[in-house]
Amino acid sequence: MISADARLVSENRLYVDQSTLTGESRPETRSAEPGNSSEPRNLVFAGTSVASGSGTAVVYATGAETRFGQISALTQSTARELSPLQMEMKDVTRTVTLIAVGVGLVVFLLSIHLTKMSPNEGFVFSLGMIVAFVPEGLLPTVTLALAMGVQRMARRNAIIKRLSVVETLGSATVICTDKTGTLTQNEMTVTDILVGMHKLAVTGTGYEPQGQIEGREPVETDLRQMLVAAGLCNDAKVALRSEKWIAHGDPTEAALLTLAAKAGIDLAAEFSRQPRLFEIPFEARRRYMTTVHQAQDGEVAYTKGSPEYVLASCTKAMIRGTEVPLSDRLRGQILRATDEYASSGLRILGVAMRRLPKGTNRSAEEVEKDLTFLGLAAMMDPPRPGVKDAVEKCHRAGIRIIMITGDYGLTAESIARQTGIVRSSSAVLTGSDLDSMDDDVLKEALKKDLILARVAPEHKLRVVGALQEMGHVVAVTGDGVNDAPALKKAHIGVAMGVVGTDVAREAADVILTDDNFASIVNAVEEGRAVFANIRRFTSYIFTSNAPEAVPFIVHAFSGGHIPLALNIMQILSVDLGTDIVPALALGAEPPEKGIMDRPPRSQDEHIITRGLLARSYLFLGMIQSLAAMSAFYFMFWTGGYWGQLFDLPSSGQLYLAATTMALAAIVTTQIGNLFAQRTESGSILKASISSNPLIWIGIAVELIIIAAIVYAPQLQWIFKTAAFPPANWIFLLSWMPSLLLADEVRKAFLRRRRAKGRTEQPSDA
Fold first, then answer.
1. Which of 140, 177, 495, 722 might form a disulfide with 505, Cβ 3.0–4.6 angstroms?
2. pLDDT tens-place string over residues 417-429
3. What does the alpha-carbon distance between residue 364 and residue 309 come to, in Å, rounded to a whole number?
4. Banded model confidence at residue 523, pLDDT cuts 50, 70, 90
5. Angle between helices 387-396 and 409-419 (to 10 degrees)
6. What is the DSSP string of 581-628?
7. What is the reported pLDDT for 104?
């Protein structure tokens, strides 16, 4: 690890992994020569690490003055945005306050003018109605829904640091994703070979020696010679650690070792047969390295490096075990293959050899001439398994994906196409392109398919800010120090837990334990489920408000001739007792099937909507009110007041039993309402009855509570209730499925209308 910013004064084949600062996947060469001013190659930075080689440098910055420290300061100065849920809860609070206070005021006025209540009694009753219309269970239920979402996300490899982020993930409209380690495995893998003028494909990914080289039989001799050369001209190591194959040294060299293992070549035995005599290290001027070995028939030199530079030193080519002159035609074929691999975003190494005449001078000029070209190895950091499916899920869910990486544009575009992030023509913009754009031009560019490559932390931060100004809910992924400012600025910062730096993890809201993009999409799915659950239990709670208010309205408009079917304590027993646990159970509902086939919810769409209020109060609430009032009258009619609607007794045991029947009717119909709320538009018949065991616990709890209120003498005194005949439960239970059946009819009608709308839409043809 490099612990300070420093300027090189000498180096020996020094490669530095700068991915924590730049996001670039492969190590870069560092040289004591300054190079150009835009990218000084003689500087090394704190927070990066040496991949191979060595050097001596003079420190010029430490601590906060380093580039690492400057990015940390930029992170600290970036303010967090309020989450959509935090802003939504403000709107919920306002809406609930207006409804509750409005109902309380109307009740107070009606109680004064239409009933025989005194102002004091009317005030107390209206205050009780205000309390009844405030969903006291909303806060604990929201908290539980978020906590349950955190648990489910943790099981799907996403650790949440802030509860509010759970729902924010479900609101995401754009994911700005890093490439290396997130979309890809951060493990170089050889995918294609050119040997003996034949193109071969290689299967398997990563450093694990599992896979095969397809179609190798015609060029078996040439392939073995090439892989031995690439394996011996190599300073990397690959080892199995904790059931995972790990590379030590240059990842591209490690990929060549894995390739040789896939071909069945024992490089340790080859090293024994051909011990290394000396090495001519890589130089920026030559762009390749050479090792010289002692073979049985003399010394042999193996060379690998940039294909163009290696090819320029070759005069022969190995074809079917024979060295043939490297004609212009063969040279052209090799260069075309190089361009073809490069256009696919692959990194290419050329491999060559030379049997040295006796007495050859050990200088680079003498050894690295008249080489025999052996082949090309094309490699890449392959996409992670499951990423393509996750990207497709994002497209179906209406979530845009923008790749922002410090890597090269061609490599980034290749990965973007392989994973399906871009499916048509797309622009590749670099950091220098962003510097030349004003904010309006940048926002216009961000409306189209876009790949951002070779960007600095300031560029990433600017892009995130522009997307937020455009009204997007932005999730940002990253692992390096360079990603930290954007991680903190975004609505959802997602850091890598395996390869991520401490700075990135500290700035983020979510940490992925498997560094996999697919885990982000899983977390988005869970976040959408949380919002749906909040809306479910809000509708569930609001539904019972209607039968709590209707008895008073009936009492008021009858001029007091119809007694109150519920008292304030009974109303509170529903809101603070029987409704709480079932509402919490709804907060634990798993994601509904097809939830990722819908677009992200609009920022103008609130939890409490006119549709939710209409469904809760006017549709389901009215059915529940009918059940409560019918139960109230049922008790009177079975008690001797058959057919009488007005001037019923407003005191005595029969009256108390009638109010208890009304209360029990609300509780039993809430059971049907509980099942109705489990699905938003799908039939309850398609919902698993075992996917949420808390539902059954909630039903058991509310039945136990209502039974205690009905039959326990101490609770009868508190809630002003009286026991009714057990046979009356048959009447109450007959009302239980009413809300569920009514809502099933409503959902079936909506599904049929949506299906009809889709069939009536004209096709693209």
1. 495
2. 888 888 777 788 8
3. 14
4. confident
5. 70
6. HHHHHHTTPPPPTTGGGSPPPPTT--SS-HHHHIIIIIIIHHHHHHHH
7. 85
- The Cα-based distances of 217 to 132, 196, 214 in angstroms read 81, 11, 9
- Residue with the larger pLDDT of the pair 668 and 91: 668
Considering Cα of 10, then 16, then 20, then 26, what sign does the dihedral take?
positive
What the block records as the tokens of 116 is 């025989």
Give the percent of the chain with pLDDT over 70.
95
Q: Count Cα atoms within 13 angstroms, Cβ side, for 543.
A: 31
Residue 136 neighbours by CB distance under 10 Å: 15
> How far apart (Å, rounded) are the C-alpha atoms in residues 380 and 349?
11
Reading the block at residue 100, the tokens are 């509750």
Rounded distance between C-alpha atoms, residue 427 and residue 475, angstroms: 21
What would the 3-class secondary structure string for 408-456 be? Answer: CHHHHHHHHHHHCCCCCCCEEEEHHHHHCCCHHHHHHHCCCCEEEECCC
Average pLDDT over residues 298-307: 93
The tokens for 104 are: 């309380």
Express the helix, strand and coil content of the chain in percent, nearest 5 each: 50, 20, 30
All domains in the chain, ordered by first residue: 5-65 (2.70.150.10), 189-380 (3.40.1110.10)
Q: Residue 110's CB: how many other CB atoms inside 10 A?
A: 19
Contacts of 281 (CB under 8 A, 6+ apart): 12, 13, 53, 289
Residue 35 confidence class, pLDDT cut points 50, 70, 90: low
Give the residue numbers marked as catalytic: 178
